[in-house]
Amino acid sequence: MIRKLDDLFVLNTDATTYAFRVTNGGHLKHLYYGKRITFDNGDVSFLEEGRELPPGNTSYYSDAHRHISLEYLCTEMSSRGKGDLGETFIDVTFPDGTGTTDFLYEGYELGTGSPNLDGLPSSHDGGAKVENLTVTLKDSHTGLTLELSYFVYADCDVITRSSRVVNSLSESVVLNRLMSSQLDFADGDFTLHTFTGGWVNEMHRNDIPVTSGKYINSSITGTSSNRANPFVMLSKGIADEEHGDVYGLNLVYSGNHFECAEKTIHGKTRILNGINPEGFSFVLEPGDSFIAPESVMTFSPIGYGGMSRNMHRFVGHHILRGQWEERPRPVLLNSWEACYFDLSEEKILGLAQQAASLGAELFVLDDGWFGQRTEDTRSLGDWHPNPDIFPEGLASCVNKIRDMGIDFGIWVEPEMVNVDSDLYRAHPDWVIDIPGREHSEGRNQRLLDLTRTDVQDYIIEAMSGVFSSADISYIKWDMNRVFSDVHSRALPPERQGEVYHRYALGLYRVMDALTKKFPHILFEGCASGGGRTDLGMLCYFPQIWGSDNTDAICRADIQEGYSYGYPLSVISAHVSTVPNHQTGRITPMETRYAVASFGLLGYELDPGKLSEEELTQIKEQIATYKEWRDVYFHGEFYRAGSSAGLANAEPTTWTVVSPDKSRAIGMNLQGLGKPYSHFEFYKAAGLKPGSLYEISTSPSFDEGSEKYIVRGDALMNAGIRTRTFLHGTHINDEIRHYPDFAATLFYIRER
Ligand code: GLA
């Protein structure tokens, strides 16, 4: 709910309040963001500093406002040149070369509905009432217009923001940066939590005390990147999974992003997010406008866990859309680690047959099926099936697979081209490169110039051809390199700073067209694994391949990293063979399944190379997953313990609970086994305290399985003692061999 009380704007979600007011000078002063509070009227003097401009070398705002320092004030947006020395929200260069701006309040508008950001993806109302507020500001000297918009998703405790600059002048201006949101706090004691990594190594949480100065989390890969995800948290004082004030911020954007947390000498803390200003500038002709991507903010007074569940609800109800939003995702078998580039129709049919007999619902043909793609040096761009693999064509092979009672999906990497391809030979000018300069290749391939409409149209047409060439129900859309030698032949020199952002806009246009044209297809985003896992992609593709690392121990860490900002229902996770192809590690099949089941389950191995026992295990796993899939998919997720490190003393504990709290699945995962350890505890979370639950390590609660009947409060607070990790110790002459990296799943149902 949004209220205006005199000069005060109050935005309430079910459990949070966000408030700011217009000062006498016309600036927007940020007052509060946190647990829900009540304002009876616009008198917020109790929240004001009550002190004058600090003495020293701070500049005051103007003669008429000698008591105001913009360096000191908490604001909704900051700008350069009038005293605010902090990280700036907006940076513009005017025709006279100056860059000072001073945006003052002009008016506001209240409305309902989710954002419409003109070519940028954004959240949708999901059938709920979304109230919005747009505040218009104007630069006091030039009249340049800035709009700040706010959208209230009350049920998720989420407020989203976006901003828009309109060049209302008669000459062009250059926009050097426009942030999406800014959060100022009058005090400090914050920790910034970022999620960084690289290929096969995504989403490791960092905890950075914001004690003084600035800390920047950003990407310049051209994508949201595996180097630094746009999702960040800010916690106040001491926080953990269940306690403490935690803010979560994310960006609905897939290009270069920027998050900066700063503490000033006055003890004020600021966090900003938006498009990365590095490598960015945009020329705005008179009448042009520029829209910054939507920023998503949430607050929880109950720790990281509460914050995560707000974000999960928001992503599930207001980011995902289309036919697959609510639909359980098929269990799949993917050909990549089974075959790599060594493909034949016989192999493909063999794999699909095995997948079907194991109970999988979808067979996915990964890279290597098109052109002369027998290695990664050629054929990207030549999107026709390799006749050596498909002598009777792709459609005929797919029909045979469909006859096995299983769906078919295929891999594409539409944004790319190999120099050794017919596409590049026909259109060497369609790539991002600098003419006359040696190109720094990435995985032997170049980026197509998606800033160009003709290239976008080509991709839409080429992919429409592939998608309708056979009975295809799933697409894995890959993107395997970072940007280098950034330059578009289609843009003049003064607009080269627009390439990164125009690429993102071009990509969104392509994805929008294809997902609308093929609404029945389940799209999975991928960028060398998790190189582009963000809310922008999720507005089109409802799931993302979280990492090329399929080792269960690494994966537990990676998936736990994602879980802070993204629900289980958007990250796919596969059981692969051992020794693992990325780490060489051997982990038990149970563990590989346990970890992958807390994601969208798939298998990425050659069943033909497994023992009968392993095949039986997989069959049972798939059957169990199908029975419990709705709990994983729609459930509320709880983390406990420490995230899986190899020699962790405490096991990683995850629990997912159905929305009605009648069913739950828990997991305990240990790193290295401990000698002489007799018991572990499993503590559930999120259950109804007074209800009676049955808990078992058997998904069907078999007679004879280890099984207890316990009240929810006891299960959550005392936990059950389990002997599942007992190993390596002689007990009555019996040695129980539970190896390192053991995991146990617990199935819980209300009686
Ligand atoms: C990327 C993906 C993998 C696989 C290969 C194929 O690395 O992340 O899953 O599809 O490309 O080349």
Helical content, roughly? 10-25%
What structural class results from the helix and strand content? alpha+beta
* CATH class placement of the largest domain: Alpha Beta
Architecture of the largest domain, according to CATH? Alpha-Beta Barrel
Low-pLDDT residue spans: 726-736
What is the terminal separation in angstroms? 39 Å
Give the full name of the CATH homologous superfamily of the largest domain.
Aldolase class I
- Which percent range describes the beta-strand content? 25-35%
Oligomer kind = single chain
Task: Describe this entry's structure for a reader.
This protein is of the alpha+beta class. It has 3 domains: 69-318, Beta-galactosidase, Chain A, domain 5 (Distorted Sandwich), CATH 2.70.98; 332-634, TIM Barrel; 639-750, Immunoglobulin-like (Sandwich). It is built from 12 helices and 40 strands. The strands form 8 sheets. Strands 6, 7, 8, 9, 11, 12, 14, 15, 19 and 20 form a 10-stranded antiparallel sheet that branches. An 8-stranded parallel beta barrel has the order 21-22-23-26-27-28-29-30, surrounded by 5 helices. Strand 11 (190-198) and strand 12 form a beta hairpin. The radius of gyration is 27 Å and the shape is globular. Residues 726-736 have low confidence and may be disordered. Bound molecules: alpha-D-galactopyranose. The site of alpha-D-galactopyranose (GLA) has 11 residues, from loops.
